[in-house]
Amino acid sequence: MRVDVDPDVVSRREFYALLNSVVVPRPIAWVSSQSADGVLNLAPHSFFTVACVQPPMVQFTSVGRKDSLNNVEATGEFVVNFAAEPLYEQVNASATNFPPEISEFEAIGVHPEPSRTIAVPRVAESPVAIECTLHTTLELGDSTVVIGRVRHLALDPSVMDGDHPEIQLLRPLARLGKDEWSTIGEVRSITRIRHSNWPDHFTPPAP
Q1: How far is CA 65 from the centre of its chain?
Q2: Where are the beta strands (DSSP E) in 111-159?
Q3: What is the Cα–Cα distance from 74 to 51, expressed in whole angstroms?
Q4: Whose C-alpha in 26, 116, 185, 199 is 20 to 30 A from the C-alpha of 6?
Q5: Are 78 and 58 within 8 A, CB to CB?
Q6: The model's pTM
Q7: How far apart are CA 196 and CA 74, in angstroms?
Q8: 27: closest CA among 44, 14, 15, 11?
Q9: d(CA 38, CA 44)
Q10: Helix boundaries (H) for the chain
Q11: Contact 25, 182 (CB under 8 A)
Q12: Nearest residue to 66 (alpha-carbon basis) of 37, 94, 88, 26
C-alpha cells in the first residue's frame, strides 16, 4: 500500500516539499550574476544539471522571479560556482532574501575574482567555476528554466587528480528535503554493461 498524493488536491507548498524530499540529492548551482546597475548577486539553485554536451550547456531553474533570473536576463551572463562542503554556511547564507541592492558577496564574506570570458565575476573561494552566456530561458508555470552556453571551465589544481577532478577533493554539497543537506558520503563504482556482454556482469535479484 502506497501513500497517493494528487498535486491538484494538495497545496503548492505541500507538493513542492514532497518533491524536494524525493528528488534527492540535488547538486547546487551557486550562481553569481550582476545587475544592470552593477550590483553583484550570489544565490544557490538546487534545480540544476547539464543540459547539453555539444555545445556544452548547463541549466538551473528559478522558482519564482529571483534576482539571479532578473540579472541573467539583463546581462546575458552568469557563473555556476561549485558548492563545496567547506563553503556550507556561506552557500546557505547566500539564499537569504536580501534586497536587490545588497550584494551577497559582501554580506556573506566571499570574494569576487575576474572571469576569463565574461564580465560577471566568479567566487574566489569556490574550486570550480563554469562561465556561461545565456542561451535561452523557458517559462514553466511559476518557474523559469535558464539554459546557459558554457564558455569556460576553471578548476583549482587542488581538486584535480592528474587531469581529472577527484570527487573526494571536490567534496560537493547537495540539497535534500526540508532543511537537510548532504555531503559526498560513500562513493561506489560500477561499470556500465554493454549489450554484447549481457548478462555476464549482471546478477538479477532472487525471486
Answers
A1: 17
A2: 112-113, 122-123, 128-140, 143-155
A3: 22
A4: 26
A5: no
A6: 0.95
A7: 51
A8: 44
A9: 20
A10: 12-22, 67-75, 88-93, 104-108, 167-170
A11: yes
A12: 94
* Interval 85-123: pLDDT, tens: 999 999 999 999 999 999 999 999 999 999 999 999 999
59 Cβ contact list (under 8 Å, min separation 6): 48, 49, 50, 51, 145, 146, 147, 148
> Do residues 131 and 53 make contact, with C-beta atoms less than 8 angstroms apart?
no
21: its cell numbers: 524530499
- pLDDT value at position 203? 82
Cell numbers describing residue 75: 546581462
Cα(7)–Cα(32) distance, rounded to whole angstroms? 33
CB contact at 8 A, 59 and 148: yes
pLDDT computed for residue 99 by the predictor? 96
- What class has domain 12-197? mainly beta
In the chain the first and final C-alpha atoms are separated, in Å, by 20
Domain ranges of the chain: 12-197
Q: Which of 7-16, 17-26, 149-158, 194-203 is predicted least confidently?
A: 194-203
| Contact predicate 105/40, CB 8 Å | yes
